[in-house]
From TrEMBL:
<dbReference type="Pfam" id="PF08241">
    <property type="entry name" value="Methyltransf_11"/>
</dbReference>
<feature type="domain" description="Methyltransferase type 11">
    <location>
        <begin position="23"/>
        <end position="117"/>
    </location>
</feature>
<dbReference type="InterPro" id="IPR029063">
    <property type="entry name" value="SAM-dependent_MTases_sf"/>
</dbReference>
<protein>
    <recommendedName>
        <fullName>Methyltransferase type 11 domain-containing protein</fullName>
    </recommendedName>
</protein>
<dbReference type="InterPro" id="IPR013216">
    <property type="entry name" value="Methyltransf_11"/>
</dbReference>
<dbReference type="GO" id="GO:0008757">
    <property type="term" value="F:S-adenosylmethionine-dependent methyltransferase activity"/>
</dbReference>
Length: 241
């Protein structure tokens, strides 16, 4: 899902004249080769993530012209105005304080630079993630409902407003959708089993975990009967400094 979203970010980033790219919350580094592919041959990428394990995975890839750092999105180890591009694929909705992350993005980006933030899109168009939240709400109920939904930034106008509040200009947005392919019921359920969200729930309660998996299997079976394919949609915010 995130790889296909990276591909959608490329036209909006105008990488052909970029030199210094900041990628935050880079995960395993999936996006770095995609960005490198579109950058001039002397451009460099600074990829960071809060997780040591993720950074170790990026380092294992031995990617050219790529510097890595373990850092939180709201406290980046870079000078002011250092980058001409800033990329945050699927992380703004995860940090405790989205405005603090936006402020830090603004600080490290040079005037004239472009920043891009993608977040989970509309729940009805993101069945791959929406069904998971639905199953959790149904099984765990109140406690899960109290937790902030990862869809909470999917109102593009509100998220653009937050970005302009910290100083960004010229906000634009688009929705980008990707299908997960007709992968069948068991493989669809398997996609959920591999997520850190479900692993976290399993740690807390084996019983809830089993009930959520069962509910997901029912939901996915119903979806398959309707001949639907699991979908993911991101909403992408593009701004300038
Ligand atoms: C959904 S993954 C996205 C990874 C990558 N950008 C992609 O699209 O494949 C979210 C990533 O955000 C990282 N993350 C979560 N909170 C963070 C924070 N406060 N600062 C930096 N990274 C964070 C996680 O470690 C994880 O690698």
């Amino acid at each position: 899902m995130s790889t296909s979203l990276y591909q959608c970010l490329i036209p909006a980033l105008n990488l052909s004249n970029a030199h210094k790219v900041c990628e935050v919350a880079c995960g395993t580094g999936n996006g770095v080769p995609i960005l490198l592919n579109h950058l001039p041959s002397d451009a460099e990428i600074w990829a960071s993530d809060i997780s040591d394990e993720m950074i170790a995975k990026v380092n294992q890839r031995q990617l050219p012209r790529t510097h890595t750092a373990q850092a939180s999105n709201d406290a980046l180890p870079y000078e002011d105005n250092f980058f001409d591009r800033y990329v945050a694929n699927l992380s703004l909705m995860l940090v405790p304080d989205a405005s603090a992350m936006l402020r830090e993005a603004y600080r490290v980006l040079a005037p004239g630079g472009t920043a891009i933030f993608s977040v989970w899109g509309r729940e009805e168009n993101s069945t791959a993630l929406g069904y998971f939240e639905q199953a959790c709400r149904e099984v765990i109920g109140e406690n899960f409902a109290k937790k902030r939904s990862n869809f909470y930034l999917n109102n593009a106008h509100e998220t653009m407003r937050m970005a302009t509040e910290v100083g960004f200009q010229n906000p634009h947005y688009f929705y980008a959708a990707s299908p997960m392919g007709p992968i069948g019921i068991e493989e669809s359920v398997q996609c959920y089993l591999d997520t850190p969200h479900l692993a976290g729930i399993k740690k807390q309660s084996e019983e809830n975990y089993n009930r959520i998996v069962e509910r997901l299997r029912e939901i996915v079976t119903e979806m398959d009967r309707r001949n639907e394919i699991l979908m993911f949609e991101g909403v992408v915010i593009v701004v300038n400094k």
